[in-house]
Design brief:
Shape: globular
Largest sheet: 9 strands, mixed
Distance between the termini: 38 Å
Strand content: 25-35%
Number of helices: 7
Structural class: alpha+beta
Low-confidence stretches: none
Mean pLDDT: 95
Amino acid sequence: MSLITDLALFVDNAARTATAIPQLTDSNPNITMDDAYAIQALSIAQRRARGETRAGYKMGLTSRAKMVQVGVDEPIWGRLTNQMREVEGAVLSKKKYVHPRAEPEVAYLLKRPLEGKVSALEALDAVEAVAPAIEIIDSRYANFKFALPDVIADNSSSSGFYIGNWHSKATDVSNLGILLEVNGRAVQIGSTAAILGNPIRSLVMAADMVSRSGERLEAGDIILAGGATAAHALSVGEHIRATFEKMGQVEFVVGE
């Protein structure tokens, strides 16, 4: 447990200071997925000890092709805090991150708890609203190189997020077109269907996977369903805008 605690402090300090670190698995090749989630939990506990509060959860590796590529049969997940949320339209300070990237996602807002194995209808019944979102992912590992346990320990790369306007949960988000633009130029075109075929499946998985760690999705939580396109590496001066069919836009500018 001492090793898990030490690694959690190491990862937390890297995130707090925006410092690149070596892969944990380089010096600790026997780290398991369970170890990695324990490191993640303790690193987020450090944030909460500094006054940050829970905001929800994020899902990662929600593309079937991506899961096959990295050899897993289900997504991974991370935790969100209030300090990770950026004001939509506001400038993103690049110096807060090591390798920041942006990817468009669907966000769910819950009106009641969700836990364990649930159906898509049960998951949707717990939803208050849906919104377009952009997640800022950031690996703290040097040269953006890592193994899967490294990613999970590093909060599954979750670092920040922007939320657009909330819409009725009756909005069908199963197959909405998405355009990601940088300075008005299209860099990614995709669909919400890339998220497990339907983003609600990501919420179903989140309820189950989070419950295995003794937690649950709570009322008021924001759940990011996972990237719908490849992520775009951010540079200072870029204007980033994601346009979602039926749901509008999310945008920000990258600053120093």
